[in-house]
């Protein structure tokens, strides 16, 4: 008799089958095989919150095949993903197939390689019921919140809305940020920038460099008005600029740690413009296995749902060996760099890293899709860089006196590039400024090439991007990194939030729903309360809290709040304001508004029911089609990704990811487009033209 191994996906099953050989049968459960029913609550709140599971519709035949294979097998191994969700799937399979949960039949693979699979099969264990309880508690909690509040929203706002323990907090954060932006009142301030240069030396030593006004009499001074700026300029007009102090130093710059789930999602958003859902889909493919020439199916990365920065000794040794051989001894470390995992991390798995260091991105590029290659390159480079030597920067800070007034200039030179030869972390803020300064000496008098006052206004806080929202959710302990992709997808699909370029903006529906939630269910949209619930779920996993007792404590207050909300809003409905457009109704002359239907947004006349005019909603751009000359419209693919296409499609066939501009091509007069990739450029897409220029020349 053969041994049966059950995993979650067919791709993973195919890869593992090649490593295990003929004595094993490997089958895929295709995720969960049973769950709470879709049409009802499915939780007995009167009987210790017991969930009422049932087979997932459409999986009846699969369950029969799994049962048949289990009966014929000598041993059944449950090898679903190595996390809380995977543990729960294994438990459900054990319940359906009659597998003894007291026997060591649970195996996990941190990486889908020959070594990783062998190590998992050599160390089977019993099911971890604390992990299962933690997942059940989360599932039941989310079901109660969603299935109790959602019908309330249907009655009070509009049908098909949903509430969620994490999604409602995420929407509130985006709404709160929008309110901050609206309430923001810009304040004027001024700066004085000088372009200075040496008066002596070779030509290259006389290159102008910038310096910024600091203050007077050794104290920092803020310039609030144009009058202040002009008064300072008048005082220093004929005053010599002299180098009064030079401070030199060496600064170390350390690499970022290898990726965990949340940081992978953030960096993929910043660098590759991937939404979190897309990032996790591609990472899953890399984990489950890709056919590599000469090696067969190989899982290229370790498990991608992790919050630990731990790295195995074997991987550290491989990285060190690769760095010494490829970059030289100067780029290697005397001992491995260890990163500290945050306090509340589960630490069940290693950080995300390549499984085989020698498989550099360029070596496997031909076997990967474009998406897979870009993400694998990001993961591989980040991990290798994390074990490389620090970069060293020669820094210089210069004080320049003009009478009692002081200007400052700073710069740096790269003394040793270290890890930056391979990878530099991106952030949501600007990269460090400064550049090369000429070699200056104290008491040296400088030539003033330009003195320029500049008016500025303080800026409101920026809207969240997916990257910055994920960072904020994680820092506040809201939800789990493994759920962020689903959360972000849900709030956009439900119409609470929309994307403008990379920014997340609340819709009118999102703002109205959040207002209702804040008034009637303040705890559910309170970040601190949600984080505390997350902490209690972690305590369930650690065996410190009984999940039924946790649910009892939560539900007692929640049910009372729900009943009070029904009383508070008895007979009341909240109206979502329509967004007025500039499109005029050709039947009655009113400005049409954007409405929401079951098939998405459309334009409708506000004069309903007297005027029933409706039409498709099209988003125009300033561009014209380079193929046929008609309008270029902003559109969305089935996956929700924005693109641009001719209004005459599919007949014309023109589409592009590049943004159409109002500018015309100086060569042929067609519309210019700006690329969306890392190397931005402006170019003409008319066949045979070929005009292009850098985006900074625009």
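Q: What amino acid sequence fits the structure above?
A:
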């Amino acid at each position: 008799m053969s041994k049966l191994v059950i995993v979650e996906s067919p791709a993973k099953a195919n890869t593992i089958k090649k490593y295990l050989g003929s004595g094993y049968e490997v089958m895929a459960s295709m995720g969960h095989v049973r769950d709470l029913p879709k049409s009802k609550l499915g939780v007995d709140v009167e009987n210790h919150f017991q969930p009422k599971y049932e087979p997932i519709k459409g999986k009846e035949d699969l369950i029969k095949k799994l049962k048949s294979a289990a009966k014929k097998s000598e041993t059944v191994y449950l090898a679903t993903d190595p996390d809380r969700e995977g543990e729960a799937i294994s438990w459900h399979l054990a319940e359906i197939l009659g597998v003894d949960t007291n026997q060591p039949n649970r195996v996990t693979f941190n990486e889908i390689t020959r070594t990783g699979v062998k190590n998992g099969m050599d160390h089977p264990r019993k099911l971890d019921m604390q992990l299962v309880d933690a997942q059940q508690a989360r599932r039941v909690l989310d079901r109660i919140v969603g299935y109790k509040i959602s019908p309330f929203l249907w009655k009070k706002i509009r049908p098909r809305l949903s509430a969620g323990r994490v999604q409602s907090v995420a929407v509130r954060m985006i709404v709160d940020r929008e309110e901050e932006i609206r309430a923001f009142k810009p304040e004027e301030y001024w700066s004085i920038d000088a372009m200075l240069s040496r008066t002596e030396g070779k030509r290259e030593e006389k290159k102008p460099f910038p310096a910024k006004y600091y203050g007077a009499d050794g104290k920092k001074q803020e310039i609030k008005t144009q009058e202040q700026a002009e008064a300072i300029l008048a005082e220093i007009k004929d005053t010599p600029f002299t180098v009064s102090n030079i401070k030199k130093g060496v600064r170390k710059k350390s690499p970022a740690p290898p990726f965990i789930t949340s940081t992978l999602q953030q960096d993929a958003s910043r660098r590759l413009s991937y939404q979190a859902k897309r990032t996790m889909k591609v990472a899953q493919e890399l984990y489950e296995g890709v056919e590599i020439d000469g090696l067969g199916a190989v899982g290229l990365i370790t498990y991608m749902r992790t919050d630990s920065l731990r790295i195995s000794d074997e991987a550290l040794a491989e990285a060190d060996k690769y760095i010494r051989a490829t970059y030289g001894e100067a780029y290697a470390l005397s001992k491995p760099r260890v990163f500290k995992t945050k306090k509340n991390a589960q630490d069940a798995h290693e950080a995300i890293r390549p499984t085989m260091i020698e498989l550099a991105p360029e070596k496997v590029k031909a076997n990967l899709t474009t998406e897979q290659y870009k993400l694998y390159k990001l993961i591989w480079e980040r991990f290798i860089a994390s074990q490389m030597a620090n970069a060293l920067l020669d820094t210089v800070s210069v004080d320049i006196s003009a009478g009692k007034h002081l200007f400052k200039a700073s710069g740096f030179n790269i003394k040793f590039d270290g890890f930056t030869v391979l990878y530099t972390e991106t952030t949501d803020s600007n990269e460090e400024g400064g550049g090369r300064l000429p070699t200056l000496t104290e008491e040296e008098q400088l030539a003033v090439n330009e003195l320029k006052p500049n008016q500025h206004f303080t800026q409101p806080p920026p809207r969240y991007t997916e990257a910055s929202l994920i960072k904020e959710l994680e820092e506040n302990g809201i939800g789990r990194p493994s759920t962020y992709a689903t959360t972000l997808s849900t709030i956009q699909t439900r119409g609470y939030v929309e994307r403008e370029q990379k920014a997340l903006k609340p819709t009118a529906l999102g703002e109205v729903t959040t207002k209702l939630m804040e008034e009637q269910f303040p705890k559910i949209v309170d970040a601190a309360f949600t984080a505390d619930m997350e902490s209690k779920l972690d305590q369930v996993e650690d065996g410190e809290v009984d999940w039924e007792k946790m649910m009892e404590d939560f539900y007692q207050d929640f049910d009372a709040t729900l009943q009070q909300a029904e009383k508070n809003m008895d007979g009341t409905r909240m109206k979502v304001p329509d967004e007025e457009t500039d499109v005029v109704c050709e039947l009655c002359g009113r400005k049409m508004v954007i409405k929401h239907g079951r098939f998405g947004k459309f334009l409708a006349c506000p004069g309903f029911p007297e005027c029933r005019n409706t039409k498709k909603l099209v988003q125009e751009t300033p561009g014209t089609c380079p193929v046929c000359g008609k309008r270029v419209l902003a559109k969305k693919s089935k996956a929700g990704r924005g693109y641009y296409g001719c209004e005459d499609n599919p007949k014309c066939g023109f589409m592009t990811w590049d943004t159409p501009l109002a500018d015309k091509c100086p060569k042929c007069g067609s519309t210019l487009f700006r690329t969306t990739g890392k190397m931005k450029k402006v170019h003409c897409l008319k066949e045979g033209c070929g005009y292009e220029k850098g985006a900074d020349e625009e």
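Q: And what stands out in the fold?
A: DSSP finds 17 helices and 30 strands in the chain.
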